[in-house]
Design brief:
By secondary structure, the chain is an alpha/beta fold. Helix content is 32%, strand content 19%. The protein is built from 15 helices and 20 strands. An 8-stranded parallel barrel has the order 3-4-5-9-10-11-12-13, surrounded by 5 helices. It has a 4-stranded antiparallel β-sheet with strand order 17-16-19-20, with no helix packed on it.
């Protein structure tokens, strides 16, 4: 390479402009070149081409697939296999507000190990349940649900979100940080920290039943939520940002949401919208702004929302239930069709045979609204599992319906289950049932080509020792992991997803394909390796 560099220096020297009055000069472009310099130029070019051509061909060979496998379908069906982990009221993690740091970390590791064993690939972790933080923040206090006192840091100190991200990525699991945008307090069992947003902006903090809810129409409240979410996007290696169905609070009988002062101020400054349209606009502006802000900060971070499963009664015909458009002022159809989200996970929390809230008909309706071909992941109410009306087979059938819709354009590409504790407590043998009947093999999450459609460069793997595949971690970009496939006849099956830190895999004899997977879940070209012999124990 040093010799090539010297040749290039000679080439640049030969191309330096000479005097137009030099004896016997040739004119090349605006550069007059003498005969001697011309000969030197030709010799230098020949040397450079002669030295670089073999290396170019070698790179092309390294990125080429063995002709024997050129037409092989070395891939698998992608599927989002998520689970919600709620921290509010200690539903899932942490399971109590007085756990030691050691127990919190051990429980998180157990959660991720369980997910990996079940071939789940995305954890939606609630990190802001009520104007608080399950991570280190200069903007909001530590969560009561984490340490038993709002504003008190874990001791000994650690950052739960950073810890969870590192452990999730080591297992090939995505982590989506889940935020509640406007709830400031739930229940009366704890005191708010002075830096909770309800204390910082008391004029916009309303008691609503057992809740304290911030006013979505107040600019400072919108800005606080925006700042908090962009702060996490900026500082943490999250795969996604996730909002649930809470925008304006679910209505309580006989209680009007007390935002008259904010609405009147809007009208006095020239606003013309009616109150309902104004409330929807407040939510729409936040959703649109979050999407733009997240993409400006980190284009590959996904933004998803899981709205209530019914958009409006009668859509589709025969469906009845709460009207989220007019009661919590959410317009998820607009967000989907404007492209303000990367995925939508409507909470279809009803049985298949429940005609007035039909799971398959609602799913079909949502997918029909997906005019920009974003991703739809169905939200499933696994906590309803009771081995009676809600038996295990109900959920198998629901997943099959979701998968069937994926065959149609813009259909569902996966599922998210509420909630994690069902898997952690293994209700009614759910874990063995899922492993056997729903997720027997691993899968990558679906790629989002509107975010990134460029695959990483091929990784050259080799059979470096008996029963082993190895490779150098010379990656063209940051990886999510490496997909390891095995040949079985004419088919290839995904065996496992290796972490990006891995440089080898111990395997039984067979023919394997290793494909790098970037952070956007694009797979690079496969490297084919035939492994002979078994690796000796302890070797």
């Amino acid at each position: 390479m040093q010799f090539i560099h010297l040749c290039l220096q000679r080439l640049r020297s030969a191309l330096k402009p000479r005097s137009r009055f030099s004896f016997g000069a040739f004119q090349v472009g605006s550069f007059p070149i003498g005969r001697l310099q011309w000969r030197r130029l030709m010799v230098t070019l020949a040397l450079v081409v002669g030295l670089l051509l073999p290396q170019v061909l070698q790179v092309r060979r390294a990125n080429a697939i063995d002709p024997v496998f050129a037409n092989a379908d070395i891939s698998h069906t992608r599927e989002f296999r998520g689970v919600w982990a709620a921290s509010v009221v200690n539903i899932d993690w942490p399971s109590a507000s007085n756990l030691s740091v050691e127990r919190q970390q051990a429980d998180l590791i157990a959660i991720l190990d369980r997910m990996q064993s079940l071939n789940l690939n995305a954890l939606v972790l609630q990190v802001r349940p009520a104007g608080d933080a399950l991570y280190a923040s200069d903007l909001e206090p530590w969560s009561f649900w984490l340490t038993g006192e709002q504003g008190r840091a874990p001791s000994p100190y650690y950052d739960p979100l950073e810890f969870a991200i590192e452990e999730a990525h080591a297992r090939g699991i995505e982590l989506h940080a889940w935020f509640n945008p406007y709830r400031a307090k739930l229940g009366s069992s704890y005191r708010l920290s002075p830096d909770n947003m309800a204390n910082r902006f008391p004029q916009y903090a309303y008691q609503y039943g057992d809740l304290i809810w911030m006013d979505p129409g107040a600019a400072v409240v919108q800005q606080q939520t925006y700042n908090v979410i962009l702060d996490v996007t900026r500082r943490y290696d999250v795969d996604g940002i996730h909002l649930d169905d809470y925008f304006y609070p679910y209505p309580k009988a006989g209680i009007e949401f007390p935002d008259s002062a904010t609405y009147n101020a809007y009208r006095q400054t020239g606003g013309t919208l009616g109150r309902d349209d104004w409330r929807r606009q407040n939510v729409n502006l936040l959703v649109e702004r979050l999407y733009s802000g997240i993409k400006a900060e980190k284009p590959n971070v996904k933004f998803g929302i899981s709205p209530f499963g019914i958009y409006r009664p009668g859509q589709p015909a025969g469906i009845s239930g709460m009207d989220q458009y007019s009661e919590i002022y959410a317009d998820p159809k607009l967000w989907l069709q404007k492209g303000w989200i990367d995925y939508m996970a409507p909470q279809l929390y009803w049985r298949i045979d429940q005609a007035a809230q039909s799971y398959p008909r609602l799913l079909e309706w949502w997918t029909q609204q997906n005019t920009l071909d974003r991703h739809i992941y169905t939200g499933n109410y696994l906590s309803k599992l009771d081995n009676q009306d809600w038996d295990l087979d109900e959920f198998r059938r629901q997943v099959e319906i979701s998968r069937g819709s994926a065959v149609v354009n813009n259909g569902s590409l996966g599922n998210i289950f509420f909630s994690l504790k069902v898997f952690m407590q293994d209700w009614y043998g759910v874990n063995a049932f899922f492993r056997r009947n729903i997720y027997p093999t691993p899968a990558l999450t679906p790629a989002m080509p509107w975010l990134d459609a460029i695959a990483p460069d091929r990784v050259e793997a080799s059979n470096s020792a008996a029963g082993q595949i190895s490779w150098e971690p010379n990656y063209s970009e940051a990886l999510k992991g490496l997909a390891l496939y095995k040949q079985a006849g004419e088919k290839w099956t995904l065996q496992r997803i290796l972490p990006p830190t891995a440089t080898r895999a111990d395997v039984p004899p067979g023919t394997y394909a290793l494909r790098p997977v970037d952070r956007a879940a694009n797979e690079g070209e496969p490297s084919i390796v035939t492994v002979r012999g078994f690796r000796r124990a302890g070797a």
